Amino acid sequence: MDLPQILIVEDDLIIAAHISTVIKTHGYNVVESLTKGESVLDFIKHNSVDVLLMDIQLGGDLDGIETAELVQKTHSTPIIFLTANGDQPTFDRAKKTFPYAFMSKPFKEEELLRTLELVINQKATSTRPGEYTNNKSLSDRIFVRDKKKMVKLKIEDILYVEAERNYCKITTKSKPYTLSVPLMKFEKKVSSDIFMRIHRSHLVNISAIDELDDHYVYINGKALAVSKSYKHDLNKRLTMV
Questions:
Q1: How many angstroms separate the Cα of 102 from the Cα of each of 5, 30, 71, 161?
Q2: Which of 3, 61, 199, 218 sits at 20 to 30 Å (Cα–Cα) from 161?
């Protein structure tokens, strides 16, 4: 599984190093730490970046907001602004670029990590103003927590999802993942034509079905019950000869 790729843009090298250490130890990969906005466009053109942590006050000709405006002309990379200057005029300028978050320095490590986790999940399951809908990563993958890491999981690799009270369990060919969201919420957030509800407790990848009978579908050796209310729609989705 790929780790979320984070680009830090911060002209204070001590702060940049601290941020890098914090997020690396919690399951993120820092692809680079840049000090000037002018370097950002060329970097993201040639490298995969999932989230951009952007200081607003930078040392070059471009500040963080101006850099964000240029980035958004060609990329939909989510931006989290970091700034020691949280005055209203700065905030008003920043919000016009549709950032995912605006954090004032100094910030708590836990606040930064929670913000990153929320942004990663939002990026994987939604399209925001200013984003390009042809960005494949917005629709074909999600990020899920695996111990202390957020890992990238391709939608097509999900075999089925089972409800477990207020949680849901994702099963892939390689391993399972337990999410702290109910199945209904997962189903709404991860919109994909390959999924279908076959039971109030089961959501399946219909392309992963190996066998079926009157009461069950079988996926990777697992029997999953099919409710009568879903059976007709399931049969319509499958090509039977």
A1: 19, 20, 17, 34
A2: 3
The ranges assigned to domains in the chain are: 5-138, 157-237
**Other Cβ atoms closer than 10 A to 34:** 23
Parallel, antiparallel, or unpaired for β 202-205 and 195-199?
antiparallel
Answer for the pair 167, 178: CB distance below 8 angstroms, yes or no: yes
Alpha carbons 68 and 65: distance in angstroms, whole number = 5
pTM above 0.85, yes or no: no
Least confident of 123-127, 199-203, 233-237: 123-127
What pLDDT score does 190 carry? 78
Identify the residue with better confidence: 192 or 203.
203
Residues 32-52, mean pLDDT to the nearest whole number: 92
Does domain 157-237 fall under CATH 2.40.50.1020? My reply is: yes
Residue pair 170/154 in contact by the 8 Å Cβ criterion: no
- The predicted model gives 130-137 an average pLDDT of 41
Cβ neighbours of residue 170 closer than 8 Å, sequence gap 6 or more: 144, 153, 158, 161, 176, 177, 178, 179
pLDDT of residue 208: 94
**Angstrom distance (rounded) from CA 72 to CA 75:** 5
Task: Kindly report the CATH number that applies to the domain delimited by 5-138.
Answer: 3.40.50.2300
Give the Cα separation of 51 and 48 in Å (integer).
10
Tell me what pLDDT residue 191 has.
Answer: 67
How far is it, in rounded angstroms, from Cα 61 to Cα 63?
Answer: 7
56 neighbors 82 (Cβ within 8 angstroms):
yes
Q: Mean pLDDT, the chain, as a whole number?
A: 86
